[in-house]
Specification:
Blueprint (H helix, E strand, L loop, with lengths): L9 E5 L4 H17 L4 E6 L3 H7 L5 E5 L11 H24 L3 E4 L5 H9 L1
């Protein structure tokens, strides 16, 4: 049995860091809003361009921010430092999942979804 509120299903949408991952997440949010008008949507991001993108929509989304790091395919000390961001994002994701108890976690391939998806798995 899912943990639904009286308003409907709670969905975490993960996409941020760039507009490439945010655009499909916003399309899913629009579709969910049409299919289930009572759905409660949360966009999980890093405070980047995705926050600006949702400001221009009429979607009712609650924005949640987590730290996240990306893996570069070339040598960079930033890869080492980003491991700590990923770990912090994982811990914050565990907290947010416990606090809001989403029924669904959906990601569109951004580095923001990694700590959130891992936390959702655990």
């Amino acid at each position: 049995m899912s943990r639904q509120t009286s308003n409907g299903v709670k969905v975490f949408l993960a996409g941020g860091g760039s507009g490439g991952a945010t655009a499909p997440v916003l399309a899913v949010a629009e579709a969910l809003t049409e299919l289930r008008p009572g759905v409660k949507l949360f966009l999980v991001g890093t405070g980047g361009v995705e926050k600006k993108m949702i400001a221009g929509t009429t979607l009712r989304l609650q924005y949640l921010k987590i730290p996240a790091g990306k893996w570069r395919r070339y040598f960079s000390l930033a890869n080492f430092l980003d491991l700590f961001k990923i770990a912090a994002g994982f811990i914050k994701s565990l907290y947010l999942i416990r606090k809001y108890q989403p029924d669904i976690i959906f990601g569109a391939g951004s580095f923001v979804q990694v700590p959130l998806a891992w936390a959702g798995y655990f």
